[in-house]
Amino acid sequence: MRRRQIVEAAAGLAVAQGYLPLPPERLARAVGVSKALVYGYFPDQHELFNAVLIHEFSALEAAGLEVASQATSLEAAALDCAELYFRHVCARGPVIHVVLRDVYMAGRVDAKVAAIRDRVARRLARRVRGELGLPPEEAVAALTLATTIPEDAGRLVWQGDLSPQGGLELCRRLTSAALAGLRPA
């Protein structure tokens, strides 16, 4: 229970701060425990933020991301995955983005975490390559850029700058437009 509280507090604090690492005193204070207890569970913050990523990706998997990525068409898969990620960011903030994009975690993402992250991404990239005829590098780049659509729309909703319905509609329209723009003429 304490471990989960520490992970959830770290996620919230990382989003609020916008970068890593976190001051250990701040994290301990947010959970209401000693720094020693935090270090007992997580000897360093790389382990802590890998646990945060596992927590976040597990929530996405539980919401059906794996199934969504297997939809019958690329467009359906892209829209379903985008909506799931959008809803996740609306509810929890852009924690995955903060952790994965921070230089503090560069080269420190655990292989288990990378495998969770990459399983759906690879499936979608293969579909982009197959259905749109893009070379592998372009398929991965297109997928990476397309991921920013639900992430930023969700962040705007999470911050209160956009309504949930408006954010979802924008996310769906931009995701569809991105796919349409990649189709051969």
Summarize the structure.
With 185 residues, the chain is mainly α. The protein has ten helices and no strands.
Description:
- This protein has 185 residues and is mainly alpha-helical.
- It has ten helices and no strands.
- The N and C termini lie far apart (54 Å).
- The mean pLDDT is 95.
Low-confidence stretches: none
- Portion of residues in beta strands equals under 5%
Return the structural class: mainly alpha
Sum up the overall morphology in one term: elongated
* Annotation field: number of helices: 10
- Count of beta strands: 0
Largest sheet: none
Assembly state: single chain
Order of helices and strands: HHHHHHHHHH
Mean pLDDT: 95
Instruction: Estimate percent helicity.
Output: over 70%
Distance between the termini: 54 Å
Keywords for this entry:
single chain; 185 residues; 10 helices; elongated
Topology at a glance:
Blueprint lengths: L1 H16 L6 H8 L3 H7 L3 H19 L1 H4 L5 H19 L2 H7 L9 H22 L3 H24 L4 H19 L3
Helix pairs in contact: 1-2, 1-4, 4-7, 4-8, 6-9, 6-10, 8-9, 9-10
